[in-house]
Design a protein that fits this description.
Elements (H helix, E strand, L loop, with lengths): L3 H62 L3 H11 L7 H14 L5 E4 L9 E6 L2 E11 L2 E9 L5 E8 L3 E4 L2 E2 L5 E7 L12 H4 L5 E10 L5 E4 L17 E2 L5 H5 L12 H23 L5 H9 L7 H12 L8 E10 L3 E4 L2 E14 L2 E4 L5 E9 L4 E10 L5
Antiparallel strand pairs: 1-2, 2-3, 3-4, 5-9, 5-11, 6-7, 6-10, 8-9, 12-14, 13-14, 14-15, 14-16, 16-17
Helix pairs in contact: 2-3, 6-7, 7-8
């Protein structure tokens, strides 16, 4: 080591060795850093892929948690622009639907689900409530389409006079909702030639059947007259407005009470009722008193009628067929059980239905003359000089609509 040359070479060797070690350490450190970075990037990539894979479902679950009745109603109405439901009635429907199942909604992947186009089902009580389709990529997703499923089974059927309108949920039904038009509801047999109704009726009233389907809930319904004024509940009491989707016309025809009938104004109605009750009293006296005072009694009953009308002819025919040889009664007591509102069948024709029970005395003892509650329908016609009886018909209670 005392040799200067050798010492110099030795120091150079040590320096080179140190430098080589540093280079090797540097290379190793760099590789270690690169490896560490690669591992971190790999973990980041794997985490990102996991997040991207879960992103659609996480987005959907967040959306589904916020899904409420109003959102369902809005989406349903957006897909059903023809619906006559309102946001309020549709929201009420879905509110009630959601409240029925305490377990709440369940979620599944739809059959057409794919990674590129995720789609999910929302089920309630085992039934499809909605299908939600997403659009996007990576971590960015949005709702592309929502289809809401609902049992829109409520229907409205209204049988109303021509010129009247029906309003459902503040929407007027148009002519495209008329299922049947120009229906004649005249309650007497017009084919009987002797009655001659076509000769006396002026502007006979006809009815149109309006029908609308697909309501989520029973709608608010109003019937409007020719002036656009809504009828009262009493005026529409005879009409069946609501039904299920499987209602049939044949079922409706079994109940002839399901149509709106027009009533005259109160002043005219009172006069018509007075004329009808007056005729009923005279008619019953004529029949119960038999031969006693028969000419006066038939004249009193005929005074309410048009000469030569079906009502007048019926009284005359009864003169020989039954009244003239019937047992004579006295002291008629007529109980009017129900006096109906006059119903218009034409501009100059109305009818009044009266439910009554008649009692009379014979031999000083009061007897149940009619033996049952009866209905009489009295048809009154105005030929230009006021209303008079044109026809009448007596039937057991329940025979008339």
């Amino acid at each position: 080591m005392k040799n200067p040359v050798f010492r110099t070479l030795y120091l150079v060797y040590l320096g080179l060795l140190f430098i080589a070690a540093l280079v090797v350490l540097g290379i190793l450190w760099k590789k270690l850093v690169l490896f560490q970075r690669s591992e971190e990037e790999k973990e980041i990539t794997e985490e990102r892929l996991r997040r991207e894979e879960q992103a659609p479902q996480l987005f959907f679950m967040e959306y589904a948690e916020e899904l409420n009745a109003q959102t369902l109603a809005s989406e349903y109405l957006a897909d059903h622009p023809e619906s006559l439901d309102t946001l309020q009635t549709a929201t009420l429907y879905f509110d009630e639907l959601l409240a029925k199942d305490a377990e709440g909604c369940k979620y599944y992947r739809a059959n057409e689900y794919s990674d590129e186009n995720p789609a999910y089902l929302v089920e309630l009580s085992g039934e499809k409530l909605a299908e939600v389709k997403l659009a996007g990529k990576g971590l960015n997703w949005a709702v592309e389409d929502v289809e809401v499923f609902a049992d829109a089974a409520e229907t409205v059927t209204a049988d109303i006079p021509d010129g009247y309108r029906i309003r459902c949920n503040d929407n007027l039904l148009g002519d495209d909702h008329i299922a049947e038009a120009g229906i004649v509801r005249f309650p007497y047999d017009k084919e009987r030639e002797t009655f001659g109704y076509d000769e006396v009726l002026k502007n006979e009233i006809k009815w149109n059947v309006y029908s609308a389907k697909g309501f989520l809930t029973q709608p608010e319904v109003e019937i409007l007259d020719t002036n656009g004024s809504a009828l009262s509940q009493e005026e529409t009491a005879d009409i069946v407005l609501f039904g299920s989707a499987d209602d049939s016309t044949s079922d409706r025809d079994k109940n002839k009470k399901d149509f709106v009938r027009i009533h005259p104004d109160e002043k005219s109605a009172q006069k018509l009722q007075d004329a009808a009750t007056g005729f009923l009293e005279a008619y019953l006296i004529y029949y119960t008193y038999g031969k006693s005072g028969i000419d006066d009694h038939i004249a009193a009953a005929q005074s309410y009628c048009f000469a030569g009308s079906p009502a007048d002819k019926s009284l005359i025919n009864a003169y020989e067929d039954s009244v003239s040889w019937a047992y004579g009664h006295t002291n008629l007591r007529n109980e009017i059980l129900q006096l109906g509102n006059p119903v218009m069948w034409a501009d100059n024709c109305c009818s009044v239905d009266i439910e009554y029970h008649a009692y009379a005395k014979r031999g000083g003892e009061e007897l149940d003359y009619s033996r049952r509650d009866e209905m009489i329908r009295i048809m009154l016609v105005d030929k230009g000089n006021g209303y008079k009886v044109y026809a009448f018909d007596v039937s057991p209670v329940g025979q008339y609509f």
